[in-house]
Amino acid sequence: MWGKKANMVRILAQPGCVASICRRPGGRWRAALRIAIRRIVVHCLLFKIFDGSLAGRLSPMLWIKALHIVFVASWFAGLFYLPRIFVNLAMESDPAATQRLLLMARKLYRFMTILAVPALAFGLILWLYYGIGRYGGWLHAKLLIVVLLLGYHHACGRLLRKFETGRNTRSHRWYRYFNEVPVLGLLGAVILAVVKPF
């Protein structure tokens, strides 16, 4: 059956095929062209699905893994940028500029907290699906890094509240070093997940 479908795809894909289909009485060539293109796309898609080459790509877990990566990357964008705002807040003396920076920091912290929830949820689904305890020590090390990053996220919230109440005692130099922590966390998590060294 699928041999016939493959032959039909080859026939429809020939250079003169679409043009010959379009030569219909009444000048309805645009509708005929749309039908021809639709047939080519549908037949190619069906052939690929049932031939097995697309079956793996339609797995729900691959979609969950993709969403997990997207939300983790978005969460890390906030973890990278919020401490940079803290650096500017520690250096700023103008009250109007300080209020603008505080507004930016509050919105960013709220946004990155929202992004962290689906990132962790999709990661938990993957962990439960593939089996708890089935993997080596690399996964436990990665989970430890995730816990430490959650602590870092919480620490950012506490530091933000100190800035809001005027109780910050840290220098801008300290915040520059503090800003490098998520870089190390991301580096370690990616190496553990990809290389799986132990």
TrEMBL record:
One of its GO terms (biological process) is protoporphyrinogen IX biosynthetic process. It comes from the Bacteria. Keywords: Cell membrane, Heme, Iron, Membrane, Metal-binding, Oxidoreductase, Transmembrane, Transmembrane helix. Pfam families: UPF0093. The keyword Iron applies. Its main location: membrane. It is found in: Cell membrane. It is a multi-pass membrane protein. GO terms for cellular component: plasma membrane. Binds 1 heme b (iron(II)-protoporphyrin IX) group per subunit. The keyword Heme applies. It catalyses: protoporphyrinogen IX + 3 A = protoporphyrin IX + 3 AH2. Its EC number is 1.3.99.-. Its cofactor is heme b. InterPro entries: HemJ-like. GO terms for molecular function: metal ion binding; protoporphyrinogen oxidase activity. The chain crosses the membrane at residues 62-87, 108-132, 138-156, 177-195. Heme binds at residues 68, 142. Pathway: Porphyrin-containing compound metabolism; protoporphyrin-IX biosynthesis; protoporphyrin-IX from protoporphyrinogen-IX: step 1/1. Homodimer. HAMAP family: HemJ. Catalyzes the oxidation of protoporphyrinogen IX to protoporphyrin IX. Belongs to the HemJ family. This is Protoporphyrinogen IX oxidase.
